[in-house]
Amino acid sequence: MAIPKILVCRHILEALNNFNNEHPGAYATLDELTKLLPHSYRDKEILTALFYLEDKGFVHLKKSYEIGNRLPIFIEVRISANGQDLVDNKSRLDAELPLTISIDQSKHLDIGKIDKGSAVSFEGPAAVGSKITFNEISGATEKSSLDENAKKEVQSLVTSLQSETSKDTISKSKVRMILSNIKSKAGEVLFEMALRLLVQIIMQQP
After folding, report:
1. Which of 47, 86, 114, 132 is the most buried (most CB within 10 A)?
2. What's the rounded Cα separation, in Å, for the pair 108 and 198?
3. What is the pLDDT of residues 68-107, one digit of tens each?
């Protein structure tokens, strides 16, 4: 499954902002940018995101075309002042490039716009890059201040989530129910850990 464009855009802006801090005003080549990104995106995914960010005014692009070739043969990019302001303002970043989790039976899991208000919000590029496992969620549950009965309930929910996300076809309603129960029984910290893990699962899918 293709990586969602919004996620690629956020990773690109983060990478370019860091590049600009190291090399103020300098343009990064496509190869340099690719090496700065936290995941191995296809060139087409990067280019799609770059053109989108250019249209939004968040990056400046230098590109050239060869006759008969629709894709640029040479490209350099730097983050714009507007892009820097966006990265530095998390609330505005989440408004302009919202990361939400939407679960679609035909596409397993996907990130995109909120689906009729029923998708679960996921905040922040830092959380996207944080690696996490089901064992870590279980460990965090055991270390939490929940009483023993609540811990058992949450552990059971985590096991159910692991089982459901390993299936070829994921039940949208079941995953939403599990997430909702984790949030109500375990609180925001464990809930966010579960969301981070779902993002990892999305990104690992072919």
Report:
1. 86
2. 11
3. 777 777 789 999 999 999 999 988 887 888 765 554 433 3
